[in-house]
Design goal:
By secondary structure, the protein is of the alpha+beta class. It has 2 domains: 172 residues, Ribosomal Protein S5, domain 2 (2-Layer Sandwich); 125 residues, 2-Layer Sandwich (Alpha-Beta Plaits), CATH 3.30.70.890. The strands form 2 sheets. Strands 1, 2, 3, 4, 5, 6 and 11 form a 7-stranded mixed sheet that branches. The chain has a 4-stranded antiparallel sheet with strand order 8-9-7-10. Helix 3 packs antiparallel against helix 4. The longest helix is centred in the middle third of the chain and has 20 residues. The protein is globular. The chain starts with 5 loop residues before the first strand and ends with a helix. The mean pLDDT is 95. Bound molecules: adenosine-5'-diphosphate (ADP) and the ligand N[C@@H](CCOP(=O)(O)O)C(=O)O. Belongs to the GHMP kinase family. Homoserine kinase subfamily. This is Homoserine kinase. Keywords: Amino-acid biosynthesis, ATP-binding, Cytoplasm, Kinase, Nucleotide-binding, Threonine biosynthesis, Transferase.
Length: 309
């Protein structure tokens, strides 16, 4: 990359779990974290979205830290850059902002450092930083991902295209993932763990065969996390009742919450969104689509030529 040239990193946000797929299922959504990057004399982040202004604008920014740590792991030093950053992903609401930031940092290291990492290597690095593969997998691959993590080892299967609408009901209050994980039990009795696994298996089979009614039923039956988190997310039950009545086939807590995601058949999302927004004016209700592409690095032709040398 030459002085003055620029590349763009675009990463979708995501919703995790879809009810019983705790720490394992992720779905990429069409709200994006976008970085415009050019070489500079020192590291600097310029926030183009108001919400991002809470984050450091120097080298201590999380995305730069992720990039430097990733590059270091592969024995590489990154040249400093100016990053202009904007985001459509609400922060700390259960819509995968931290996972998108991690993927952005890894893509930054990969491109700037000529690391040529495979998607599997990127996922392994991202999942070990985030602690679970669901959101990072969706942000990286797009579509629906199902993954299993053991330290740095991740097994993942991704599916595209997945076609249904997603309506996100986003409260104004934040809920940090670590706080929402603190209310979960350390252990489950064997018989309950077996039941919880079976519910998750049926969810996946139902989603992939298009049996949305059954998928919705499984979302509600989750035993892993939603029963414990309802204490922190008292609106879950109300959103669930209203949106099932208004045509959603399923409802789940988005990641660790507090956002609730409602799933509707293709084409039904807009009217569901309109109805829910009227019924819950205090919430930010968004009609979203599934991102099928995952993270992207977009470069100019001149920059591409230089980069491949
Ligand atoms: N664009 C960003 N730049 C830097 N850090 C970010 C960015 N987006 C998210 N983060 C980090 O992720 C944290 C939110 O993570 P988390 O509590 O898991 O919420 P979410 O559900 O949105 O992922 C933020 O407090 C911040 O530390
Ligand atoms: N499986 C995790 C997902 C956390 O997602 P986030 O978007 O809330 O960070 C969990 O349920 O804790």
């Amino acid at each position: 990359m030459m002085e003055g040239e620029m590349f763009i990193i675009r990463v979708p946000g995501s919703t995790a779990n879809l009810g019983p797929g705790f720490d394992s299922i992720g779905l990429a959504l069409n709200q994006y974290l976008t970085l415009e990057v050019e070489k500079a004399s020192h590291w600097k982040v310029e926030m183009l979205s108001e919400e991002l202004k809470v984050f450091p604008s120097d080298k201590t920014n999380y995305i730069i830290q992720v990039a430097l740590e990733t590059a270091k792991k592969y024995g590489c030093n990154l040249p400093p850059c100016l990053i202009k950053m904007k985001s459509e992903i609400p922060l700390t609401r259960g819509l995968g902002s931290s996972a998108a930031a991690i993927i952005a940092g890894i893509e930054l290291a990969d491109f700037l450092g000529h690391l040529n990492l495979s998607r599997e290597e990127k996922l392994s690095q991202a999942a070990s930083m985030e602690g679970h593969p669901d959101n990072v997998g969706a942000s990286l691959y797009g579509g629906l991902i199902i993954g299993k993590q053991d330290g740095e080892k991740v097994d993942v299967v991704s599916f595209q295209p997945i076609t249904f609408d997603v309506v996100a009901v986003i409260p104004h209050e934040e809920l940090e993932t670590k706080d929402s994980r603190n209310v979960l039990p350390k252990q489950l009795p064997f018989s309950e763990a077996v039941k919880a696994g079976a519910i998750s298996n049926v969810l996946v089979a139902a989603l992939l065969t298009g049996d949305y009614k059954l998928a919705g039923k499984m979302m509600k039956e989750d035993l892993y996390h939603q029963p414990y988190r309802t204490l922190l997310v008292p609106h879950l039950q109300e959103v669930e009742e209203l949106s099932l009545k208004e045509g959603a086939f399923g409802v789940a807590l988005s990641g660790a919450g507090p956002t609730v995601v409602c799933f509707a058949e293709k084409g039904k999302g807009q009217s569901l969104k309109n109805k829910l927004q009227l019924l819950m004016p205090q919430m930010d209700v968004r009609n979203l689509a599934i991102d099928q592409a995952g993270s992207k690095v977009m470069i100019s032709e001149r920059c591409q030529k230089y980069h491949s040398n």
